[in-house]
Design brief:
Layout lengths: L1 H7 L2 E11 L3 E4 L6 E7 L1 E6 L5 E4 L3 E4 L5 E4 L7 E3 L6 E4 L7 E9 L5 H7 L4 E3 L4 H18 L5 H18 L12 H6 L1 H12 L7 H8 L3 H12 L3 H19 L4 H8 L4 H12 L3 H9 L10
Parallel strand pairs: 1-9, 2-8
Antiparallel strand pairs: 1-10, 2-7, 3-6, 3-10, 4-5, 4-7, 6-11
């Protein structure tokens, strides 16, 4: 989990108070970055594209790992006005008198090259209700995020990043927050005792030339059972997961620090720069050097975020 949060490198994009009074409804296009909100007063209805509206009450926390198109309204089924996300405070509905609804909402950015990690980890939406003790913990983090966003103190960006990381960890670490235990994805794999031992081994020593036999022994299962369980939960074979994780580390290293391919290849378990380049091109559809250049130039390379 720590490996993955570090790769996501979250940074604040926007945050603002949202208020409403009377009858109101808004519609936002897909944002495709993580968005979060906590209801401070009153209630509203959130409708994700393709889903039935969900009621949010005071104290509820909500995180959308890959924000789809959504509606937010005072009551379900009413007409909604299209709006564009912004960093300024907004009020919906009647402007007469104090608002009967208050929410603090925000969004943050993660590097596109690693964006798929968050989607793989989390469900479409996390909703923590006010009566859940975890809502209080998340509310305190959100309150600190709000305080930092509204101030201009030294170290603001670094502290915001750490607070957003804490928010993600708090969401990830709670097994009850993401639905049924049989849910597929990397987080489900981390909760499975046998798979978690394999995942921990791979992440602890990515340079090792792991075999299915070695990983099966760690899991305490046969190779057939381990392969089937991996496919069911993580949608790939164990050795395929190792290859994917190596490429994730490689892409992150290429865009953050560069350096000789020989060193990078050795760090992630390839015997030579040539072997690494061949594997990278086969998996990502582009040479490592060209991938790094495209990313630095602001062009999404093939395979980035996939």
């Amino acid at each position: 989990m720590s490996d993955i949060i570090a790769l996501l490198a979250p940074r604040a994009a926007l945050s603002k108070p949202i208020t409403g009074k009377g009858i109101w409804g808004i519609r936002c296009a897909a944002y495709r970055q993580p968005g979060f909100a906590i209801v401070l007063e009153g209630q509203c209805w959130l409708g994700l594209e393709g889903d039935a509206p969900l009621q949010l009450r005071a104290g509820d926390f909500m995180l959308l790992p890959h924000t789809p198109a959504f509606t937010l309204s005072s009551e379900p089924g009413i007409a909604c006005t299209d709006v564009v996300p912004s960093a300024i405070a907004v009020h919906h509905g009647s402007g007469d008198g104090p608002p009967d609804f208050r929410m603090f909402g925000g969004a943050f950015e993660i590097d596109a090259v690693n964006a798929s990690l968050l989607v793989d980890l989390l469900p479409r939406m996390i909703h923590v209700r006010a009566r859940d003790e975890r809502a209080g913990r998340l509310a305190r983090i959100v309150d600190l995020v709000r305080d930092e966003c509204e101030a201009d103190r030294p170290g603001r960006d670094m502290l915001l990043r750490r607070l957003l990381e804490a928010m993600l960890v708090e969401c990830l670490r709670q097994s009850g927050m993401v639905g049924a235990a049989e849910q597929a994805g990397l987080l489900a794999g981390m909760r499975d005792p046998a798979l978690s031992r394999v995942l921990r081994a791979i992440h602890s020593d990515v340079r090792h030339d792991w075999t299915l036999a070695e990983l099966s022994k760690l899991a305490g299962t046969s190779r057939t059972v381990l392969s089937a369980r991996f496919q069911q939960v993580l949608k790939c074979a164990p050795i395929e997961y190792l290859g994917r994780w190596r490429m994730t580390l490689a892409k992150d290293a290429l865009i953050r620090r560069g350096g000789p391919l020989e060193r990078l290849a050795e760090e992630i378990g390839y015997q030579s720069a040539s072997a690494f380049s061949t594997a990278f091109r086969k998996r990502e559809g582009i040479a490592p050097g060209a991938f790094a250049k495209r990313y630095r130039d602001g062009v999404t390379a093939p395979g980035a975020g996939s």
